[in-house]
Amino acid sequence: MVLNTKILILIIPAVLFLGIGTSMVTGLWNSGDKQPSRYQDNELNPYDPQSISGSYSLADISKYYEIPVDVLYEAFSISDTFDPAKFKAKNLGSIYEPMEIEIGTESIQAFVALYNNLSFELVDVNLPINAVNLILAHNTSLSDDQKTYLNTHTINVVALDPSKVTLSEDEGTSTGFTVKGPTTIQEVLDAGMTKAEFEALVGTTVAHANQTVKDFCIEKGLSFSEIKIILQDTINK
After folding, report:
1. Radius of gyration (Cα) for the chain, nearest Å?
2. What span, in angstroms and rounded, lies between the C-alpha atoms of 58 and 112?
3. How is the chain classified by DSSP, letter by letter?
4. What does 112-167 look like in DSSP terms, one character per residue?
5. How far is the C-alpha of 231 from the C-alpha of 99, rounded, in Å?
6. Calpha distance 54→88 (Å, rounded)
7. Residue 227 half-sphere exposure toward CB, CA atoms < 13 A
8. Is the CB of residue 136 less than 8 Å from the CB of residue 118?
9. Which one, of 159, 140, 19, lies nearest residue 75 by Cα?
10. Is residue 190 packed enough to be buried (19+ CB in 10 Å), middle (13-18) or exposed (0-12)?
11. What percent of the chain stands above pLDDT 70?
12. Which of 72, 114, 157, 195 is the most exposed, having the fewest neighbouring CB atoms within 10 Å of its CB?
């Protein structure tokens, strides 16, 4: 049987359309768009730096965000004598000489976000000067606002002698309660604080308990860094 040209013109697009449609349904078609897959709450999401919690090691962070371990070490003045598979994000604050400004897990989140040009809300997060210099050299897509933020939130850190640093598995404890970027007000209440106690500590009322503590602080003009420490200390007493 010989098909004429007019019929072929009608058949070919239909076949292509049906083929692509079937492939999309079965998950075989890839348009080339870089869309995030679904991740569990306890998994690192390479598209969301806020999924980094204190329990993740530098090796984990390096793998999922494709940032060399050496870069992470240089950014935060971490001695290469520490094993990247054992050095956790929550250990970061323990390697510096005491200072008033906090450098911790959120600082790592911010560095990863800015280094890889990922979305991240910069509020009350400070970065060591080495980290800022690496970001500026690597990410040429920073906005003027981001550059201005870095200029005003860059600090000098002094690392302790590694032999005098003990990396405690219980630091920033997994058994105690820790307020992080994604922590909601409801999770704070579930940890043992009443709504009245929370409102008394923050000095204002709460309308939606499913809002994150960080977003709440931003909305109310409060310092998230200060509030989270107060909440953690109160709950973990």
Report:
1. 23
2. 11
3. ----HHHHHHHHHHHHHHHHHHHHHHT----S--------TTS-BTTBGGG--TT-BHHHHHHHHT--HHHHHHHTT--TTS-TTT-BGGGGGGGB---SS--SHHHHHHHHHHHTT-----SS--EEHHHHHHHHHH-TT--HHHHHHHHHSEE---BPPGGG----TTTT-SSS----TT-BHHHHHHTT--HHHHHHHHTS--S-TTSBHHHHHHHHT--HHHHHHHHHHHHT-
4. HHHHTT-----SS--EEHHHHHHHHHH-TT--HHHHHHHHHSEE---BPPGGG---
5. 20
6. 6
7. 27
8. no
9. 159
10. exposed
11. 78
12. 195
**Residues found in the chain:** 237
CA 31 from chain center: how many Å? 27
Residue position matching structure tokens 């200060």 = 226
44-94 pLDDT per residue, tens: 788 888 888 778 899 999 999 999 999 999 999 999 999 999 999 888 988
Distant-in-sequence, close-in-space partners of 123: CB < 8 Å, separation ≥ 6:
214, 217, 218, 224
**Unique residue bearing structure tokens 């897959």:** 37
Q: How far apart are CA 174 and CA 155, in angstroms?
A: 28
Per-residue pLDDT reduced to its tens digit, 39-50: 444 467 888 888
In whole angstroms, what is the distance from residue 173 CA to residue 151 CA? 32
Residue 102: C-alpha distances to residues 94, 95, 134, 226 (Å): 10, 12, 20, 10
Residue written as tokens 């070490």?
73
Long-range pairs for 138-146: beta carbons < 8 A, 24 or more residues apart: 139/114, 139/115, 141/117, 142/114, 142/117, 146/114, 146/122
